Task: structure prediction
Amino acid sequence: MDNLYSLTANELLALLDKRSVKPEDIIESVCSRAQSVDGKVKGYLGIDKEGALGHAKALPASGKLRGIPVAIKDNICVEGELTTCASKILSGFRPPYNATVVEKLKSEGAVVLGRANMDEFAFGSSCENSAYFPTLNPWDTSRIPGGSSGGSAAVVAADEAVMALGSDTGGSIRQPAALCGVVGMKPTYGRVSRYGLIAFASSLDQIGPLTKDVCDSALLLGAIAGYDENDSTSVNIPVPDYLSCLTGDVKGMKIGIPKEYFVDGMDKEVDAAVKEAVALLKGKGAQVSEVSLPHTEYAVAVYYILATAEASSNLARFDGVQFGRRCEDPQNILDMYERTRGEGFGAEAKRRIILGTYVLSSGYYDAYYLKAQKVRALIKDDFDKVFKAGLDCILTPTSPTPAFKVGERSSDPLSMYLSDIFTISVNLAGVPAISVPCGFTKSGLPIGMQLIGDFFQEGKILRAAHAYECHTDWHKRSPKL
Amino acid sequence: MSIKDDKVKYVARLARLKLTDREVSLIAHQLDGILGYVDKLNERLDISKDVPPMSHPHAASNPFREDKARPSAPGEAVLSNAPQKKGNFFKVPRIIEE
Amino acid sequence: MDYEPVIGLEVHVQVKTASKMFCGCTTEFGGSPNSHTCPVCLGFPGVLPVLNKKALFSAVRTALAVGCKISAEVKFHRKNYFYPDLPKGYQISQYDEPLSEDGKVDIDAGGRVKTIRVKRVHMEEDAGKLIHEEGENSSLVDFNRCGMPLLEIVSEPDINSPEEAYRYLTKLKLLLKYLDVSDCDMEKGSLRCDANISIRKKGDTGLGTKAEVKNMNSFKGVKSALEYEIERQVKCAETGERIVMETRLWDPDRCVTISMRSKEEAHDYRYFPEPDLVPFALDPSVVESERKSLPELPEAKKARFIGSLGLPEYDAEVLTQEKANADYFEACLKYYDKPKVIANWLMGDISAYMNSKNMAIEELKMGPAALCGLLKEIDSGKISGKMAKDIVLRMCETGKDASAIISESGLSQISDASQLEKFADEAIAENVKTVEDFMKGKDSALMFLVGQVMKKTKGKANPAMVNEVLRKRLAAKK
Result:
């Protein structure tokens, strides 16, 4: 079989079960695919084919992902391997530990294939902020793949990886998934351990799967979810069998359409595709109603205060003392700090550190940080209210526009920040959400819709997303590379 | 609130970030845009009722660790990423006592 | 003009735990540099803190012992600043909602009880240690201490003299040792103290400009530093020099405080809630059961020693100054029912022995049961009090029982009259002149004869019985 790379994990596992292929065949196939297309996509910071083949020879006897190669976003620690957050300040950094999710993947027999590119420290929505090179959209390489998990989304879309892990702080899994035509899920805050995820904003970050379809999303989520005693913010409740949630029908599911998410300025093709998806689900028996999440308009402002504040503190450890890069020939300690950080961080990282430090600094805390925390509570209340009223999920567009051109928004940070307008509230509230392909623009760019669930109700949004997928074939299309 | 260059410089010092003058004025300009957007919304939303600030999506759950010592990391693992070391110490430029 | 100092103390105490505050590294003192570290206490990227339960509950117990109100939710904040001994660029500490507030410590201030209010008791993690290399343009960092659990105990500015400060610290240390929360060893750094100090004209109620004095590394050092600093500030006031708000370092060699120059930027620590730790709910019932399980504290113990055991106040005070001593004393009461006798021995010969060996009562080889065995031997007349003084030293040295030492060295008193008669007769025969004196009515001559018998028996005779036997034999001679 020479097109193994194009199959989903569930399809490959079936072949592995029948022993018609070996794990090494899959790795060979995916690697040769990457070799032929990654020059255009630039989704990987590094692929370790030899290491992967080595691992494939020493797999555990069983496991949910036995023999499946997975790409890992470059902010998730892999023991002894480079982990740099696509930043110069961490060049050469090899963590002496695995992230909990990596441990889990390995114990389920998955094979770590390579490091996916990203916006530096996950700061961005276009993958242009990587200190190394921008990743490009496999559907149109003059366009961005979204971000920050742009590398993860692009390599899955381009069949350079069977599945990938990303991280999502304000939409960083879902937005690139939508823009690259793949499935991306941000689990409930606390569902997946953050231990070993290099933090951007600790109260918002969550690791999640980027996959070719919803079944794979359920599979990968099931493998990485669960309480971790090394992460005080992970929640100790049982992990359901997500695959068994995929019944294929939405009959009777209550789906809410928030009016605040269908606003002026939204791309008309996106608007139309999402509305068509709503109609389809309605046709299949879903009960659709309009709902209101009144504090939605404040989400971006709240997010950029809270997330940058946390980031400014989380990034203080990159100071050239214990690990990472240090500037040349420092004159004294202050000089070492200022130049190490001034030279090591890119423009967006600097901007966010300054903004985050500013909103926490003396005299501004109450006006910005404290107020943002209060509005965050109101945003969460909005979700609590509609779910308490009996909704199963909320359906929205994932991104207001399809993939934009490289460089189009890089000089205007605010316009870049506003591209996360539909995904940010979910992180602020802590609820889970999934983005699934729901159409293409006339020019052939993917469009994604977002299904948001109540706390720990990943099963419900997977079910609705899967049912939609059963009746559409958007997810089966592949970019021509 | 409009953010001025000297405020950016003060904050950059707090954050130990060396910025060029060009970076300072660019960031000041960009932050003006972002904070202007934030301020505009702030003005519209009056939180008159007492809303408790939210720092975590979940309420308290008491994830404690029992007080048991575990082996520390081997010295090699701890120091292998150090930019500069001496023996088993991390080495830094001399601290000028303030 | 008379000035009065106003002093508030910030005491940092290392909590006695097996592992660090947020990771499993050992808290053992020493160890080669960075050998007690891991990615968590070194602040490596991606790692997360998990709170040590014992550290939290030690803090709760301490707060309860000084009468603080305990917060229903324990919240941590990040205190952000850069320093090479602080690997994350922030310290996990507590800020506007500390673990506990509003407590007090009573001290003896010149014979009257004075209350020093405790503003708050909160938890935070310790930083690493910097070693400045002589002659080198660099410093070295050892993170073994980094992440150790600390308690910060902050007093209100209720202290008005160096002596009161000293007493406050002594009292606090006593409490912490009773609670078994900390070793409070200033030399090992398990107790550290900073002082905020200002002066004002006597009678004024406002507060003057304060200086913060750091680097005081012994209780006596605190006293000396405060004395110096008060004098300095008074001199400033008298000469019209402005007192500035600043941090000053105590130099114990030169006995002066030195300004750290206010070059440091205004502190802007950008505190915000630690997002890696969800707040910990402290159920009132949990707090209540902690309160009930607190050990008897020194004041209560002292009162009980006076009230129900009948000890003099002085004895009760001395015995409760170290919890281990009080424990030893109380263990003795199980075997022997004369508290004052036990107290005398502990405060006398045994205390002298421990002082000479520079040892603590925990290291004493003689246990409470053994000591009481000795006391019973005295009561039974088998040995004299004087003999007991020697025996007790040997017990302390060897750990053997009194009875073992008595029998192996034949130390027991000769209380057998027939045995003594032989020695009495000898003494009478050898001291004709003295016997004559006695016969003439010089009663004191008898004492000389008693002494002679004691000498012959190498001190083993029961003196009262010797006296009796001698009188009998002399009477027979008349």
